[in-house]
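YM 10:42: DUF4145 domain-containing protein sequence, as discussed on the call
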Amino acid sequence: MLDDVAFVAALSPALGEEYRSAKRYVHEVPTQALLHVRSFAHRLTGLLAEQAQLSFDSPNLYERIEQLNRQRLIDVRVTRALHRLRADGNRGAHPEKYHLSHHELLKLADKALQSLLSMVELLYPRLLQQEPPAYEVADNRELDGRELCYRAVMQDDAEAQYLLGMAFKNRALTAQAEHDDAHRAESVAALLLAKAAYWFGLAAEHNINALYEHGVALLHGYTAAPQPEVGEPLIAEAATQQQVDAMALLGYFYMVGSHCFSVDLAQAQHYLQLAANAEQSEAMANLGVLYYQQQQFTEAFHWISHAAKSGYPHAQYHLSLMLARGEGCDADVVASEQWLAEAAEQGQIDAMLARAQHMLNDEPSFGSDLSQAEQYLRLAIRYEQRVMAMIELAIALTDGSFGRIDVVEAAAWLNMARSRGSSDEQAVVLPLIASLQQQTARVLQLSTDAAEQKSLQRALELLAD
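YM 10:58: structure's back
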């Protein structure tokens, strides 16, 4: 009986290789597995188009899936499944943007592999005009931790060293989602990043991806103080060798200026365009921003919408704003809210805050789930200490929007907002504190319940700090 890798390869050797690679990395470097999942989806759309002699209008995976759907070459079930695989792959490319824990990444990668097999079973009769053969899933951990470490240490294998570095880096990037204590998360992340930097440095001479990551490690100071004067030239060197992430980052350096590179918008456009053509989502988004800054809204909308459709949450948020304002497109409030919801669902902080505000203010938001609004506000505080989220949460806790009133917690959030807020935010916070002080004092005078009196007194203490 065929094993699962041979089963997929029977449909297409190229798909079989992508599946084998994804399975190989799933346990130790799940982000790499998810990147292969996305590549699998890309190759599969090409196979479907080739059979129908269809030429794609765009290299963008989202557009390819939609074009297949419009041509009725795939049904709704396959369309949705391909979009899920696309989205899973995007999470592998930018795990830190989605606030996923390492355990969640492992579950996501494992589930994506199962989805790949289901997709092959579904499409096998259509592509080969025969029923799929029986197969069994082999319990094959080709790249378990021991094997990876052996290759990296004993064989001085640059690819294994790079993968070890990525394993440590991704654990560091997901540390915040695994630890409620911010200081603990920072300490764990620092240790993991130092380990990642070590392996990137070892592999940099022989592996282009490791060279890029080594530059990033020096730029951000994974092991010591940041060394942009050393890190940025290494990133530029990787960019000249067509490393896509390096081209995207070098383009960003030229767009905003950096330690080694002065602003040069022509060079910025050059490198961002190269990376965008390779479907690097941040490059597409930044290319859109570059056009936006130059008031070329049609081009900005084109690239930002491409980045949004690729699953990049920051681009989804900015696309929502452009649709609301009608910049580079016809204004579309419904589509704007849809993209805002998509960005919020993927953990984009500005989008979560905006969605929560829409829900609390009872604005059109495709459902006003107030428990979801509360979760968004708390996540915005947890991950970025957003003062406006503290303010909105405090107001909702005092007016009963969440179905309960908690004056003590509201006072605590306003106290924190007061200590962290900018001058503009202070202008909002201070009147709210004064108002809540007055209301709390009045209720305290009338209260006859000892527990309530204790809570109200605690709230006043917090507000007075």
